[in-house]
Every structure is written in structure tokens, then in C-alpha cells.
Design a protein that fits this description.
CATH class: Alpha Beta
CATH topology: Rossmann fold
Number of strands: 7
CATH superfamily: Vaccinia Virus protein VP39
Oligomer: single chain
Largest sheet: 7 strands, mixed
Bound molecules: S-adenosyl-L-homocysteine, 3,4-dihydroxybenzoic acid, magnesium ion
Structural class: alpha/beta
Low-confidence stretches: 1-11
Number of domains: 1
Distance between the termini: 54 Å
Number of helices: 9
Order of helices and strands: HHHHEHEHEHEHEHEE
Strand order of the largest sheet: 3-2-1-4-5-7-6
Radius of gyration: 17 Å
Strand content: 15-25%
């Protein structure tokens, strides 16, 4: 009989990438991602500052970059900045005059992100706000900062249902909503999970499914970050 894994190992399992998944990410990355001094410097700075290594992967960052391009988004909202890796990927795809608002709870993360964005020459395109997203989102609404063209939800998964509600409030017809990390090594199917992040994501999906203003899909993916996935939705009206 196989030995039981420690609970913590099971919890973190989605982060463990199989060698093949890494090799394929390396193959695609070598072909499709040119050497990028600013993104590489940002990753080094994030690790040097001890930020958790949960930035989107380089290929996922390119995916977000392309989404911003393909939608022609001029106003982007990101919930969960960390060190600004995904922020850089998206900000670079904005047209002239485009702007990204990004929300981060941890002042230390925001400080590292600000330095990375400055180094990438992108500070003027980014409005980085520090605080709990659930406190900052009503401020954005009161400021009439929306509607946003693309909204990337990537913070504390526990609050994903509320983030989806706010995304709808700050959207227009055609807004694209991307929710990161919705698979978590397949744990999303465990209705009885005691993990608050899984429960938050499942409640987010319940709302997504019940919301007539949204048309949505979700994809599983593997790669250097292990086995995870994302949800993608468009606002119909
Ligand atoms: N989008 C980033 C990764 C974000 S990691 C990238 O791909 O590069 C998730 C971030 O959300 C962390 O920095 C964490 O501090 C932040 N966060 C957690 N809870 C939050 C909250 N309530 N409000 C805002 N940010 C939060
Ligand atoms: C975690 C968070 C993320 O945003 C991510 O992409 C991967 C992992 C986490 O909290 O473990
Ligand atoms: Mg994420």
C-alpha cells in the first residue's frame, strides 16, 4: 500500500509539476518568448524579496498579454498584484493612453511591484493601490473608475465570489473576466473540501453559472506551475 502523504504535501500538490510538463513549457518558452530582461529582473527581485513564487508563468503571462491585445482593452483591472509580473505582461499590451488598476493587500508586495514597474518603464500606465481588495473595489466604483474592458482576478481565492460580483459591477457589455487558479490539482471538484480557497472558487462558479449576464468557460492546464486552470467569461449585457 502506498504511504499516505502528509496533509500539507497534498494541499500543495498542484504546485508540483511533472518533468514532462516543465519540458514542454521550456520548449514553448524557448520558441515563443524572447529573452526579456525586465520580466526576468522582476522575477529575480520577487524571489530576492521572499515573495511567494506564485506569479503567472512566463507562458501564462504571454497569454494575458495576448488577451489584452486581442480584446483591444484600454482599461484593465487586476485583483492581486504580488510583484507585478502579470501587471507588466498586461500593461505592455495596452494601447497608448491605456491604464491598468492593480490591487494589492500586502504593502511589501506592492513596494516590490512598484520597483519592478518602474524598472520596466511602466509606472505611468499603472495605478497600484494598496489595501484589501474588498475595501478598494467600492472606492473604484464610487470614483466611476470603470467600466473595465478586462478584469484579472488573482488574489485570495476565498473571496472569489465577491470579486466576481464586483467585476460585474465594474464591467460593460463585452468585458472579459479571467479568474486564475480554479482547478488546484483537481481539488475544485471536492464539494466537501475544508479549504476556504476551494469553497470560495466553487461559490464563484455557482454564481458564474447562475448569472445570465455571463457566458463562461473554464480550462484545466499543466505546466511549470503544476496542474491548475482558469475560468474565462464575457459580459453579455
Ligand atoms: N497576479 C500576480 C500574482 C498574485 S498572487 C502575478 O501573476 O504576478 C496573489 C496576491 O494577492 C498576493 O500578492 C496577495 O498578497 C494578494 N492578496 C491576498 N489577499 C488580498 C486581498 N484581500 N486584497 C488584495 N490583494 C490580496
Ligand atoms: C497560489 C496563488 C496563485 O495566484 C497562484 O497562481 C498559484 C498559487 C497560492 O495561493 O497557492
Ligand atoms: Mg494566480
Amino acid at each position: 500500500m502506498a504511504p499516505r502523504k502528509a496533509a500539507s504535501a497534498v494541499r500543495q500538490n498542484y504546485k508540483v509539476a511533472q518533468p514532462k510538463w516543465k519540458a514542454v513549457d521550456r520548449y514553448f518558452g524557448d520558441l515563443l518568448l524572447p529573452a526579456d530582461a525586465e520580466l526576468e529582473a522582476a522575477l529575480r527581485a520577487n524571489r530576492a524579496a521572499g515573495l511567494p513564487a506564485i506569479d503567472v508563468s512566463p507562458l501564462q503571462g504571454k497569454f494575458l498579454h495576448l488577451l489584452v491585445r486581442m480584446t483591444g482593452a484600454r482599461r484593465v483591472l487586476e485583483i492581486g498584484t504580488l510583484g507585478g509580473y502579470s501587471t507588466i505582461c498586461m500593461a505592455r499590451a495596452l494601447p497608448k493612453g491605456g491604464r491598468i488598476v492593480t490591487l494589492e493587500y500586502e504593502p511589501r508586495h506592492a513596494g516590490v511591484a512598484r520597483a519592478n514597474l518602474r524598472n520596466a518603464g511602466l509606472l505611468k500606465r499603472v495605478d497600484l493601490r494598496v489595501g484589501r481588495a474588498l475595501d478598494l473595489l467600492p472606492v473604484l466604483a464610487a470614483e466611476r473608475a470603470g467600466p473595465f474592458d478586462l478584469i484579472f482576478i488573482d488574489a485570495d481565492k476565498e473571496n472569489n465570489p465577491q470579486y466576481l460580483d464586483w467585476a460585474l459591477k465594474l464591467a460593460r457589455r463585452g468585458t472579459v473576466i479571467f479568474v486564475d487558479n480554479v482547478v488546484r490539482d483537481g481539488k475544485v471538484v471536492d464539494a466537501k473540501s475544508k479549504d476556504k480557497d476551494i469553497q470560495g472558487t466553487r461559490r464563484m462558479f455557482d454564481r458564474m453559472a447562475a448569472e445570465p449576464r455571463l457566458s463562461a468557460t473554464a480550462l484545466q492546464n499543466v505546466g511549470v506551475k503544476g496542474y491548475d486552470g482558469f475560468a474565462l467569461a464575457v459580459v453579455l449585457r
